[in-house]
Amino acid sequence: MHILVVNCGSSSLKFQLIALPSERVAAKGLVERIGQAVNAQFRYTAGERDFPKKAVKAPDHSAAIQQVITALVEGETAVLKAKSDIVAFGHRVVHGGEQFSDSQLIDAPVMKAIKQCCELAPLHNPANLAGICACQEALPGVPNVAVFDTAFHQTMQPHAFHYALPPRYYEKLHIRRYGFHGTSHKYVTHKFAEVQKKTPDEVNLITCHLGNGSSLAAVQNGRSVDTSMGFTPLQGVIMGTRSGDIDPAVVFYLIEQGGMTVDAVNDLLNKKSGLLGFSGVSSDMRDILAAVDAGNERAALALNMCAYGIAKYVGAYHAILPRTDAIVFTAGIGENSGPVRAAVCAHLAGIGVALDDGRNMAHRGIGPVSSPSSRIPVWVIPTNEELMIARETYNLMQARP
Ligand code: ADP
Hints:
Elements: E1 2-8, E2 12-19, E3 24-32, E4 40-46, E5 49-56, H1 61-73, E6 86-93, E7 104-105, H2 108-116, H3 125-138, E8 144-148, H4 158-161, H5 167-171, H6 182-195, E9 205-210, E10 214-220, E11 223-227, H7 249-256, H8 262-271, H9 274-279, H10 285-293, H11 297-320, E12 326-330, H12 331-336, H13 338-345, H14 357-362, E13 367-368, E14 378-380, H15 385-399
Parallel strand pairs: 1-6, 6-8, 9-12, 12-14
Antiparallel strand pairs: 1-2, 2-3, 3-4, 4-5, 7-8, 9-10, 10-11, 13-14
The structure holds adenosine-5'-diphosphate (ADP).
């Protein structure tokens, strides 16, 4: 059975066609610059074969998904005999609010609830909705499944998810910690359990998803009990362009004393802070590391601040978990950067974390990077959110009457 996994941004559509249950990726790619005055760009890979990037017309997400489906079934890019070989769409949906603690087969009430969550994620959910509508229109009758970034964290208890505000702000405005990257935290949790020949409910982990956006989760018996992102993805550790945790009074100060508008502060904290803002070098960790190697002290301080903040969350989560089976690094930085893992773990000697330096720096793929003497094993597990979305979609399809 082929499932088309779709991840829509406001001007992009990422996709993977995955065969289940074999989990083979038949094709994948990206349509960028959807809805812009210039032509959209279409990148497509079938199996191992990369096709040259081409310009396509994609004034909206519907046109973009049509381009994708055409590529999947027609001409030299084809990997399917017919459109009807796509048995379901699996969608990444950023915000599921408190309504969804699991993936959902999309029907009218689910659609309505996703729309309601637009006010909580105004930059993301409308694009996700556009993608769902586009797929419904392109292949009517083919089921669509929503997999929410927030769902995995819905197991957090009230003492972990509330902010200390009067109750009406939660009751009327739904202000609380939601957490994000749930699909990734769940994927690496399940993968760790699988390689340990355990079930997910037998593992306790601290999962560190470090990418352009970063978050950590405390996972107890396979369930999220706390996570570093909050009401929005701005809270938590220092990220590529986001400040992470900051005293909220800084916002009032910037407005009252700094003469900034609310929009300007929003832009500053989300897009001009973090590694980029503090170092003045780049939001990309590879550029930061290169600058550190070239002797840039500001970049070195940015890296150390970032690593120190991650280590503080690890320490906090180790304290609240009854047992920590492993610290898991994942996503672009977590998977690929020995130097960043080393910088984080350098602040964790107090809880007995020790890396195997050679192994950590040379590591590729899945496996431990800690020394045998480490009191908590440290692992690297490459994430695969698309595969997790395909699995969730497959499971819901199998469960249908
Ligand atoms: P996103 O959050 O957009 O999905 P990714 O998970 O792909 O992002 O992570 C992107 C980040 O990973 C960038 O900061 C990039 O510099 C970093 N990255 C990728 N490869 C490496 C590497 N070899 N060393 C250090 N950082 C890396």
